[in-house]
UniProtKB/TrEMBL annotation:
Keywords: Decarboxylase, Lyase, Pyrimidine biosynthesis. GO terms for molecular function: orotidine-5'-phosphate decarboxylase activity. Pathway: Pyrimidine metabolism; UMP biosynthesis via de novo pathway; UMP from orotate: step 2/2. One of its GO terms (biological process) is 'de novo' UMP biosynthetic process. GO terms for cellular component: cytosol. This is Orotidine 5'-phosphate decarboxylase. It comes from Candidatus Acidianus copahuensis. Residues 3-199 form the Orotidine 5'-phosphate decarboxylase domain. InterPro entries: Aldolase_TIM (IPR013785), OMPdecase (IPR014732), OMPdeCOase_dom (IPR001754), RibuloseP-bd_barrel (IPR011060). Its EC number is 4.1.1.23. Substrate binds at K28, G183, R184.
């Protein structure tokens, strides 16, 4: 099973993405890529690519503005910050995405050191009210990732922070994530296809290891 979401924050050659897609679940279209190529350029880069497209446009605004942004580029999923709250923001975005069939992922906790989880209970309430399809939660902090999996047992959890940010491939999967979001380790590699295969293998080994540990 493919457990990698390729974070495209920089351009990788189209033929490489075509080959990589066999080993990944989705691509996450990053804001830097969009600024670099424009909407037309991103669509061109990904034409013929069959995997899901998750738009990471750093959404944290009023509903009207977020809807204008997501209307400009097609995707299968859209990530938004939970901290912006429900009324006039996420409620409007969720209604809009429901009408287009796109899936909403809410970001409940971040992967960098400075993130503060002390307001997690508020973000959890927001997620319970909005009922997103999925959640973004960090690979880098196992405690909060496990808690989020416990609080949202049936939602898809996608997890950044693997590779350059320090988490090892498969660790987040062992802590409750469904997919690991990986950018620089792949797109900065001289051999992105080889790197994706290597990461997939490491993920599988790690999953077997942690399943075994739980069984003991
Ligand atoms: P990388 O593997 O190169 O660190 O990329 C991680 C990706 O996930 C980047 O696109 C980054 O913006 C995003 N991300 C993150 O790293 N931490 C978060 O908490 C939320 C993110 O969206």
């Amino acid at each position: 099973m493919n457990r990698i979401i390729l974070a495209l924050d920089e351009v990788i050659q189209r033929d490489k993405i075509m080959q990589i897609q066999e080993y990944i679940y989705a691509v996450k279209i990053g804001y830097p890529l969009l600024l670099q190529l424009g909407v037309g350029g991103v669509n061109e880069l990904l034409s013929g690519v069959k995997v899901k497209r998750i738009l990471d446009l750093k959404l944290a605004d009023i509903g009207n503005t977020m809807i204008k942004i997501v209307s400009k580029i097609p995707g299968d999923g859209v990530i938004a910050h939970a901290f912006i709250g429900v009324e006039g923001a996420l409620d409007e975005l969720k209604r809009f995405l429901d009408s287009t069939g796109e899936k909403l992922y809410l970001l409940l906790s971040m992967s960098h050191i400075g993130w503060n989880d002390s307001f997690y209970d508020y973000l959890k309430d927001v997620a319970n009210e909005i009922k997103p399809y999925g959640i973004v939660a960090p690979a880098t902090r196992s405690g909060i990732l496990q808690k989020i999996r416990h609080d949202f047992p049936s939602l898809e959890i996608i997890s950044p922070g693997v590779g350059v940010q320090g988490s090892l491939p498969g660790d987040a999967l062992c802590n409750g994530a469904d997919y690991e979001i990986i950018g620089r380790s792949i797109y900065s590699s001289l051999d992105p296809i080889g790197k994706v295969k290597e990461i997939s293998k490491l993920q599988e080994e790690r999953i077997l290891e942690c399943k075994g540990a739980k069984g003991r």
